[in-house]
Amino acid sequence: MGLHKLALNANKRHCWGMAALVAISSIVLELGGDPVRAALAYTREGVAAGEWWRFLTNHLVHLGWTHMWLNLAGIALVAWLVGGVFDWRRWLAVAGITALVIAAGFWFLYPELEWYVGLSGLEHGLLVGGLYAGIRARNKESIVLLCFVLAKIAWEQFSGGPLPGSAATSGGTVIINAHLYGTIGGALAGVLLWRRDGQATAI
Known about the structure:
Blueprint: H1 2-31, H2 33-40, E1 42-43, H3 44-48, H4 54-57, H5 65-82, H6 88-109, E2 115-116, H7 120-130, H8 132-136, H9 140-159, H10 166-170, H11 176-202
Helix pairs in contact: 1-5, 5-7, 6-7, 6-11, 7-11, 9-11
């Protein structure tokens, strides 16, 4: 039991450390203003020209300071809710898989999207991926939280828009498909880690 608590505390430190790194990076990039935003945002034209980094860097730049602080509050919430689930390697795996799914969704399923910035899609994936341990253990809080996320995604998709007030708060158009692709990416990461854990246990 003591070792489990030590591991849990270490995982939380890893997660908060990574959240702090994301926050510092976002703040520094926001200080660069429009030129940095233009260089790092996802743009379909830029990716088509071979600027592949935009698939990743778009998550670290924002519409402005308000949008950035809202996104960083979301990352802090994810760290608080599920930060103890993974060590830094697994958090990187969840983030990487989620980012790849978002990139594939933008490119193959959402060709009309010309421009995107922000962390919200990635946040959805990190939260859903982080809930996997609780779902596996049939934890009621994790199940309720997952149902809330899925209900939010359903609202956005079937109503054709974000939750009321989201656009006004963030200061720009909310790309709801980023939330959908992020959720799918996080779920995929959770399933892959679940299967790997099952195989390791069997061995």
